[in-house]
Amino acid sequence: xxxxxxxxxxxxxxxxxSREANSAIFGAAEALRRQLLEAxxxxxxxxxxxxxxxxxxxxxxxxxxxxSEGFYGIGAIYGPEASTQGDxxxxxxxxxxxxxxxxxxxxxxxxxAVENFxxxxxxxxxxxxxxxxxxxxxxxxxxxxxxxKPRNRWIExxxxxxxxxxxxxxxxxxxxxxxxxxxxxSLSEGLLSVEHANEFALTYVHIYEYNAALAADFTxxxxxxxAIAGITLRYAAEHSYIxxxxxxxxxxxxxxxxxxxxxxxxxxxxxxxxxxxxxVYRLAARADxxxxxxSVNGDELLATDVNTQLTHGRVGFYARGxxxxxxxxxxxxxxxxxxxxxHVSHTVVGKERDTFCEGASVLEMNxxxxxLTRNSNFNYTSRDGGVTWQSRGEWTPYAxxxxxxxxxxxxxxxxxxxxxxxxxxxxxxxxxxxxxxTWVEGGAICPRVGVExxxxxxxxxxxxxxxxxxxxxxSMTYTSAVNIEKWYNFVVFYCSDDGGLxxxxxxxxxxxxxxxxxxxxxxxxxxxxxxVIQCADGRIRMLNSxxxxxxxxxxxxFxxxxTWGPLQKIEWMTCNRSSFAFARDRQAGNDTTYYMVxxxxxxxxxxxxxxxxRFAIARSEDGMNxxxxxxxxxxxxxxxxxxxxxxxxxxxxxxxxxxxxxITADRIxxxxxxxxxxxxxxxxxxxxxxxxxxxxxKSNF
Length: 701
Known about the structure:
Layout: E1 2-5, E2 8-9, E3 14-17, H1 23-40, E4 46-48, E5 57-60, H2 66-69, E6 90-96, E7 99-104, H3 107-121, E8 129-132, E9 137-141, E10 145-147, E11 164-166, E12 176-177, E13 186-188, E14 191-194, E15 201-209, E16 212-237, E17 240-247, E18 252-259, E19 266-272, E20 280-288, E21 291-296, E22 299-304, E23 313-333, E24 344-349, E25 361-364, E26 370-375, E27 378-382, E28 390-391, E29 405-407, E30 413-421, E31 424-432, E32 440-447, E33 464-466, E34 472-480, E35 488-496, E36 504-508, E37 527-528, E38 531-534, E39 540-544, E40 546-547, E41 551-557, E42 568-574, E43 580-584, E44 594-599, E45 614-620, E46 627-634, E47 639-641, E48 651-652, E49 655-663, E50 667-675, E51 689-697
Parallel strand pairs: 1-8, 3-4, 3-5, 5-7
Antiparallel strand pairs: 1-2, 6-7, 6-9, 10-47, 11-23, 12-15, 13-14, 14-23, 15-23, 16-17, 16-20, 16-23, 17-18, 18-19, 20-21, 21-22, 24-51, 25-26, 26-27, 27-28, 29-30, 30-31, 31-32, 33-34, 34-35, 35-36, 37-40, 38-39, 39-41, 41-42, 43-44, 44-45, 45-46, 47-48, 49-50, 50-51
Helix pairs in contact: 1-3
């Protein structure tokens, strides 16, 4: 088979992707290359758009080539040829001069366009000739995603009457931070600067604000081709942001937005202009709902009202391929909804291995180091308070799937493990007096497979608690399932008064007054992953967020867990069937000061189950009353992915799973599995977890 594009032999072409392309785009490029090789015997080169342009290119997705521009201009977010303007999955494939261009607002749309091209022209066509006309143009829809309108449905955003302003950003070293412990930017005497940045360098303030304005004086120092620099707003993740600034390669001021890894970046506004090295430019960026503006030296150069990235996010400065000096920065929090945290770090642990990690435990050793442990193959150590992490070998073996390890008041560790006794697997306890080097077997707690349910215990991490009397509680979640409509979970507590040598049964959530399973609608029968907490007045409180009540529920025991009172709600602490974690501050002035992290979401807006998009931290000094402190992480994407295998509904893209928290003398360390995309082999639900770790200086609280 022979093939030509606009009269040019296919072998003269190459495939070009963006330097920031994700796995969906790379997969499309590889699929096209492979199919061309099979059908035509020609193996095309795949390059990114940092290479010099040629006349004969196949462009996939958003690239820096001028031929890609028409697909992402103002008012054409979904492609100008889209049959339905509001269809996020719309794509187009067309000739622009001598170049074949595939484009869509989401990368899976690009993949669909390429696959359809392959089906039409290459697959099973091993004889004859194929000629792509210079007038070739095709539009379609991937139908891989749905967009739930109105897009701003998670909360109502209202500007404060008196917006909060921060004018000391560059005179206090605590505000700015970089991902993964990097230190590319430097701050000294009110000057924030970065030398010629070879990689993309971002520094930001940890504040999840929806409407914000950030202004500063910029001085640029030289620039290579492809250099960019400016201000970022609503920065939720590496691939989710609003960026305003200057593009040195194209010689233009711009506003770019991107909604996530599965979506294409697009330039919603631009204007030609010249930047002179060494000259000071006052840049002011503002995001207020759909309204985005960029002003330079007091003149509003760009303004757009297009649908854009709509979530709370962080704010900061970025540069690539140029040196930048930033002075006289002023941040105005127009919504005044978020809280600024200082001295914060954020690291993705295991990213170098793309390691799936749904949940882990963070533990402080006697020498002050930290261990992050998930299983035998996922153990990391930090010696700088959780800012950076180094991979290590196995710390301690356990067969429970998710670690439950607790430091007892006598200094020993206790953990859950599994042991076969008489041919039956039992959950057992083990203790260590040497920081996990050796372990002593304790007592059997319960069979690992529920006698009543026939299903294995489905625990996640950190299910052990010790109260003031010394009693240890172990929380076990049982699942009984015939099919998805009849699922229900319940929790049983077991407790030990002799350091884990013997155990007896305590609470069974099925029999809590007010939580009658047989009289409760099926979907309210979810009740999993509960924990107990000691209150200041001596009561023991069972807390639960993994339920369908839409908020935290609890019940109290006044006899150290022998009997339990009725189910009650903490209605302001909303949640939606998700886990939580808490830790006691051992350095506090009392023994009932706790910090908690959980998914602070509203109950699921139909048709989206399990929105876990806001990760919040709270504090209690008595175990009963909680104060919201702020956001650890937040990404309320307006897009969902389906089908969700269990019930055919669409599930929120961004997902928080199985958090953990640890407290040292001066830091609070928070960890959680976070899913930010659905490409690759994990196209459902929340199963593309990477392990994120944040550290917060206690001075914030």
